[in-house]
Amino acid sequence: MITLYGCGEGFGLPEISPYVTKTEVQLKMAGLPYVKVLARPDESPKGQVPFIDAKGARIADSTFIRGYVERTYGVDFDEGLDPAQRAQAWAIERMMENHFGWTLCVERWLDPENFAKGPANFFEGAPEGVREAVLDEVRRNVRAVGIGRHTDLEVVALAVRSLAAVSAILADKPFLFGRQPCGADATVFAMLAGTLTPFFNGEIRRRAEGFGNLVAYVDRLMARFYPEFEWDLESSVHAPMAA
């Protein structure tokens, strides 16, 4: 039995962290039994979630977890894809995780309203006397990342370019490369769900809602992999948002 360590439900999502969501969806895709346990990042070998325990091994980082699962359990998440499609899938994952994901981070961590009702709650356990200093420090760290140095409009422009690229690749297909989901679908779904959740406001979310095929894609994967979760994106897309 695999133990998956993550953050748990929150922010209008079945799992707060898109990286944990990616791993959880891949475990579901593989049909592997697992239990999910809440954990803090400092409990991980790499100081981040997700991480797993499996067959006596502890593996951290969603990309390395995927590699372990494929090697250990004989799973090929890209089964049916030709070499060019496998390369495209890798490029899509890197764009969404290592570039688009940071625009999402900026919108959550550097927007005061989003930060106050979201990520700031991660630090409720910090002593009251140092909590504000801790919050300031983590926000400075986000700003120190390349994308965090850009203006709001520049960050949105970068995010929209990635959204448009994924929308063009998906087109009218049910999944990125056809009728069956591949490993990259888990990543793209996780990032897009985190963007579209009604819990947070922001220009990136507004722009994402304009890509109808991406909204339908998230609805479709949410229904497939989290059928028990109440995901009512349709009503929130048409509802007015706070300024």
Describe this structure in words.
A hairpin with a 2-residue loop joins β3 (51-54) and β4 (57-60). The longest helix has 27 residues, at 83-109. This protein has helices at residues 18-30, 62-73, 83-109, 112-117, 128-144, 152-170, 183-196, 203-208, 212-225, 233-238; strands at residues 2-6, 34-38, 51-54, 57-60. The chain is built from ten helices and four strands. With 243 residues, it is an alpha+beta fold. Mean pLDDT is 91; it is low at 235-243. It folds into two domains: 2-73, Glutaredoxin (3-Layer(aba) Sandwich), CATH 3.40.30; 83-238, Glutathione S-transferase Yfyf (Class Pi), Chain A, domain 2 (Up-down Bundle). The chain starts with a strand and ends in a 5-residue tail after the last helix. 55% of the residues lie in helices and 7% in strands. It has a four-stranded mixed beta sheet with strand order 2-1-3-4, with helices on one face.
- Spatially, the strands of the biggest sheet line up as 2-1-3-4
Structure class: alpha+beta
Distance between the termini: 46 Å
Count of folded domains: 2
How can the largest sheet be summarized? 4 strands, mixed
Radius of gyration, in angstroms, nearest whole number = 18 Å
